[in-house]
Structures are given as C-alpha cells and as structure tokens.
Amino acid sequence: MSDIATGTETTPVAAAGPAAGPAGKVLLSVDHVVKYYPIRGGILRRKLGDVKAVDDVSFDVKAGEILGLVGESGCGKSTLGRTLTRLLPATSGSATLGGESIFDKKGRDLKRLRRQMQIIFQDPVGSLNPRMPVSDIIGEGMLAQADATNGWGDRKVRDKRVGDYLQAVGLRRDYARRYPHEFSGGQRQRIGIARALVLDPEFVVCDEPVSALDVSIQSQILNLLIDLRRDFGLTYLFIAHNLSVVQFISDRVGVMYLGKIVELAPVDDLYASPGHPYTIALLSAVPDADPRKKKQRIVLKGDIPSPANPPTGCRFNTRCWLREQLGNPENCVTEEPKLRVLKSGHEVACHWTEKISGQTVEKAADESDVMQTDVPVGA
Ligand SMILES: Nc1ncnc2c1ncn2[C@@H]1O[C@H](COP(=O)(O)OP(=O)(O)OP(=O)(O)O)[C@@H](O)[C@H]1O
Ligand code: SF4
Ligand SMILES: [Mg+2]
Fold first, then answer.
1. Residues with beta carbon < 5 A to ion ligand 3?
2. pTM score
3. pLDDT tens digits along 353-367
4. Sheet containing 100-101: which strands, arranged edge to edge?
C-alpha cells in the first residue's frame, strides 16, 4: 500500500456542528420547479408518460446556509440537485442564484453560472478519471473557464492554484502528480471537493458526499466541508439519506417524498418536533445513542409508489399511519396538501398535522411492533 493510502492528510479540526450560521440574505431561490423524465415505448418511441421525479418544489437557501435534503431512495433528491445546477434541463418552474435566473442562462452567461454552482458527487472513484493525474482532474474545469482576467489558460497559474486547493482540502501539494488509484476513498473525496472549489463557486450541491465512505472517514469529510463553508463563504445543498449525517451538518432540513418537499424546518426543530407523519416515521428509525432506551419505531407499510403514477391528493396517503388512525379522511386522497407554516420557519405539507400527539405516535409504534412480531422468523 502506498504512503498515501495510509492517510497522511491533515485531519480537519473537529467541529460540533455547523461553524457559521446563515447570514440572512437569500442566495438560491427555487420556485415551483418541476423535472419530469419522459417514458417512451414502442417502435416509434412515443411518449407514454412521465416519471415525476421533482414535482413543484419551492424553497430558499440563505447565503452561508447548509440546507440538508433527506428522503428515501428515488424521491428525487439528486434530480433536484442536478436540475438546479443545470446538469439537467428543468421541465418548468424557475430558480435564481443571487437574483439571476438559472434556467434562462445561455452562452457566456451560462458558462459563468456553471462556475458559480458546483456539485460534489457521492462516488469519489467513479467521478475521477483514472487516466488523469490529479493536477489535470482539478485543473480541467479551470482550463474550460480560462479567460484573460483569471489567467487560467497558463499551466503554471493552474498548477499553483491546484496546489493551493489540495492544501485547502488537507492534502499535500505534490499529490498533484499522482493518479486516483493511488489514493484512499477519503482522499479521493477530498480531490473531488478540491475540483469543485477551485472554480470559486458560491453554491455547492453535495450529493451524498460521504455515503460511500467508511464511518470513521465520514466525520473528517463532514468537518472539512464545514470548515470550507466558513473559509470560502460557501452555501450548500447537502443531500443524504443518513439522517444523523444531515442533522450534524445542516442549519435547516427539507424532507422529500415522491418528488415533493413535505417538511422544511430548522434542524433542531425538525429533529425535536417533526410535524409530518413521514418525517416522524423516518426519524423513528434512527437508532438512539443510548442503547438502553427503547425507541418507538414506526414501520411504514407497503412500498414507495411509482413516481410515474403517484397517488392523488397527498402522495403519502397509501402509507400514512396518521390517516389510518383518523379513519381515512377523504381530503388526503382528493386534495394535495401544500406546505404551510406550523410555527416560525417550520413548514409542513399535511392536512392533519395538528392531530399528531404523543398518543397517536405511540399507537402507530405499537401497531408497528405488532406488525413486526407477526412476521414469521426467516420470512
Ligand atoms: N435519467 C433518468 N430517466 C428516467 N428516470 C430517472 C432518471 N434518473 C432518475 N430517474 C428516476 O427519477 C426518480 C428520482 O431519482 P433520483 O435519482 O433523483 O432519486 P434520489 O432521491 O437521488 O435517490 P437515491 O437516494 O437513490 O440517490 C426515480 O424514480 C428514478 O428512477
Ligand atoms: S395529508 Fe393525510 S395522508 Fe397526507 S400526511 Fe397528512 S394525514 Fe397523512
Ligand atoms: Mg441520489
């Protein structure tokens, strides 16, 4: 094993959570964004329908803020991140960065926008070209963005900046000459982060940046992202399905279900008093730090429906424990619940959120217990 894989990087300062809170001014504004993937079939490849991956999503992210985005696999998190950064075309809706339209940009303006918005991917192996040395991997985007003012067309200027950013992410400058296979997973993710930050973005989508890493490395990368946010004045949309990771890094959290945001709240508020039956079920599955405490776990019935044919009304109605307890009220299937303010900064998309109490949650957990013990061992 090379000396690199044994981990000679500087360990980032341990932080107890986000170091700097949101500054207050809105940087990213997302307004009724829709992204459908057409389903085609037959010899003529006619359109048969749509996968409604992101369906009418609106939210703001303040400058300097980390907005976490959670939800089950396939709920549309990556599609939303990629649509906002113009890696995918939006179907409809609008979004602005610093007041400027994201989806309308073309030509030179689009090129400038691409610099301002970067994405860090989940898979540090797959996202780095194995045949390129690190200097070219990180320098590639700079070359594409080179102009007379930044001087990035000059190899020396690029190499100097690549070295600076390797150091900024806790790696040695001379690693620039090495190839991706010479690095450990955590180091490869640091290279992925340097590649995104070298372009001096304002807004970064972190799409599951620690999911592929060992647990011991995850906290190093999370602390690094927190430090870089402070040092480079960054704003993140942080996508993950690990709720503990999102709790650790986020200022606010959005919960997605089948292409919609069903709850949006400051992180402490969301984890202490979730207001959507789906969020309550998700959080109930997070193991307690104290193993002696018995957790009230709510197991959702059935599979997540297809985003090509989502349920009418509230998309969660086929799996909702609260609806069942309330005797299946009609508006859950006829009327789509919009996000509404529950208390300051805390929005929930549920017609019946006020009916949630300690008793209803306990009842749902008890019924889940029965469901689980009813399943024959080994089934
Ligand atoms: N290129 C595509 N063409 C058609 N459907 C797609 C495409 N990419 C994603 N989808 C579908 O869109 C929906 C949302 O996918 P997406 O990858 O955004 O979910 P996700 O929340 O990021 O999931 P995960 O947690 O597994 O990464 C899924 O049903 C997925 O199958
Ligand atoms: S609107 Fe109805 S189905 Fe949807 S989460 Fe609320 S109670 Fe459940
Ligand atoms: Mg994804």
1. 78
2. 0.91
3. 999 999 999 999 998
4. 46-62, 26-41, 92-97, 100-101
